[in-house]
Each structure stands twice: as structure tokens, then as C-alpha cells.
Write a structure and sequence with these properties.
The chain is an all-alpha fold. It is built from 16 helices and four strands.
């Protein structure tokens, strides 16, 4: 399978779709990629600097494996948090011999560092890889609903927003039905508009600071104020129609103001793609039994 790994020189924008089921990905790499999917672009440089322990602005395979060890440790200890503990773990593994590292040859390692493992990765290449990963996943989600068309409907956009969220089926359907009733004329949402919105979702922490300012002042947020807040915190200019659609979803009383708590709750769930809830679920035999009980309950 590893022989199918494309060369980095090809600069493919669809790495995972090119590989499909002809590659190997470790669980720690899965955690790493999932984390990158939920981070703004500014977070790429921070991640890169954590990899780049020797400060040469390039990552070698050892540095990458050291960071993977942190992800592996956190996967086995769900109570672990990023911060001082991660720095401590990284310092610890800097003194581990190469022979003691858990090395599992994977498609991602070969793509980054070559078949012999002696290539290095510069920041521009690393950043392009992350951009392409985010775009590739968003394209897959968009095309699932567009079915070959250049746009998705407002109702389909709402369905994407509620993916991976904590809402049960009835609550989700209530929101979607409200959007369906309020959409008098379907204009559609393009992929570029779709992508811009979900890039904004990756900046929710910054946007939440603005929301808190409005809450402290006891001021609701209008569509114009929402657009301005997004521009200030992310630099993105969301399409007017996309913002209006968001307000059709999260303005439940129809007063033209955003229901801030509901919006942030749903969007934070969406940003993490349900992964935090997954970590809370039991694993092993108890997790299997819980899964069976849940499936039986849903089939009744």
C-alpha cells in the first residue's frame, strides 16, 4: 500500500481522494489531522513551531514522531489537556533514542518524509497541506448535498450546520423545517461561500469574545453587526445571503437578532465534528455494549 503514496512534488490538492483506500493512517495521525481541521490558519504556524524543536524552520521525521507521541499519550489518557503537560511530554521525548520511538510506517509519513524518512518539511509546504486538507474535506461535504450542482439550497446548508451537533433528531428537524418555511425564494449557496463560512467557524474562540461584549452590554446582534464582527475577528467577508440564512436558522423569534447561546452551542459542536463527544463514550467491551444498546433503541 505504501508504494501508492504520491510524491510531494506533484503538489496534489486532493491527496486523500487520490489515495482512497490504498493508504495507511495511524490513529495518532488521525487525531492530528482532525485537530488541524478545526484550527484557523494562524494555528498552523503554532503547530509547526512546536514540531520545529531545533528552530531551523523545517520539520524532520523525528520531530514529527515526537509530536505524534504526545497525541498517542493524550489518546490513552482522555483527561490530559494541552498546555504545560504537552510541553513536558515533548521535553521528555526529546531525549528518547530513535530505536525507542514507536515508528509505524504510514502513507502520511512517506508523503511528508519520503521512503527513506530523511526528507524534511518546510512551513510553506506544511501550510499548503493543511489548507488543502480543510478544502478537501469541505468539498466532500458540499458535494454530498450539491449532487453535481454549483450550489446547495439554504435547507441543505442548515443540514450541514447541524451535522455532528448535540441536538436530537426532533430538535434538528424543527430548525430545518423553520428554515424551509422562511425561505421564500431559493438562491443557493456556492462552494466558495460555504468554505468562507466554515473557515469562520474555525475562529469561533475569537468571535466569542465579540459576542460576550454584546452580552455584557445587553445588546442583541443584527446581521450587519454579525458581518462586521466576523470581518474584525477573521478577516473574512461573509456573503450577505449566507449571513441572512444563518439568522433564518438562529433567529427563532423572528426579531432579526441572533440567538447567541444557541448559535455558539451548535457551532462549537460542529467545529469539533462530534469528536469530543466521541472521547466521552466508553471504549472496549463496555463501549461495544453501549453501542449495541443504542442501535437496538434506534431500531425500535
Amino acid at each position: 500500500m505504501l508504494a501508492n503514496t504520491p510524491s510531494r512534488r506533484r503538489k496534489t490538492k486532493h491527496l486523500f481522494r487520490d489515495i482512497m483506500d490504498r493508504g495507511i493512517l495511524s490513529y495518532t495521525e488521525y487525531l492530528f489531522l482532525l485537530c488541524i481541521l478545526t484550527k484557523p490558519k494562524a494555528g498552523y504556524e503554532i503547530a509547526f513551531k512546536m514540531f520545529d524543536r531545533d528552530g531551523n524552520k523545517r520539520i524532520d521525521r523525528r520531530e514529527f514522531l515526537l509530536m505524534e507521541e504526545i497525541f498517542r499519550k493524550r489518546a490513552h489518557d482522555q483527561s490530559a489537556v494541552l498546555g504545560d503537560e504537552s510541553v513536558s511530554l515533548l521535553s521528555k521525548y526529546l531525549h528518547v533514542a530513535d530505536s525507542e520511538l514507536l515508528i509505524q510506517e504510514t502513507t502520511l509519513l512517506r508523503y511528508f518524509f519520503g521512503s527513506r524518512g530523511n526528507d524534511t518539511l518546510d512551513y510553506d509546504t506544511f501550510s499548503s497541506f493543511m489548507d488543502n486538507l480543510q478544502t478537501e474535506v469541505l468539498e466532500l461535504e458540499f458535494h454530498e448535498y450539491s449532487k453535481g450542482m454549483p450550489t446547495i439550497s439554504e435547507v441543505e446548508f442548515a443540514k450541514v450546520l447541524f451535522k455532528y451537533t448535540y441536538l436530537d433528531d426532533d430538535e434538528r428537524e424543527d430548525y430545518i423545517e423553520m428554515v424551509r418555511e422562511r425561505t421564500q425564494e431559493e438562491k443557493g449557496i456556492t462552494f466558495d461561500q460555504f468554505k468562507d463560512f466554515f473557515q469562520f467557524v474555525n475562529h469561533l474562540d475569537d468571535f466569542e469574545i465579540v459576542l460576550r461584549m454584546y452580552s455584557f452590554a445587553d445588546q442583541p446582534m443584527s446581521e450587519d453587526e454579525f458581518r462586521r464582527a466576523v470581518l474584525v475577528t477573521t478577516g473574512l467577508r461573509l456573503a450577505d445571503h449566507v449571513v441572512h440564512t444563518v439568522f433564518q436558522i438562529f433567529d427563532t423569534d423572528g426579531d432579526g437578532k441572533l440567538m447567541q447561546r444557541e448559535f455558539m452551542g451548535v457551532m462549537k459542536n460542529r467545529a469539533h465534528r462530534g469528536f469530543r463527544e466521541h472521547l466521552k463514550n466508553p471504549v472496549g467491551w463496555s463501549g461495544f455494549k453501549a453501542c449495541v444498546r443504542n442501535e437496538l433503541k434506534q431500531s425500535q
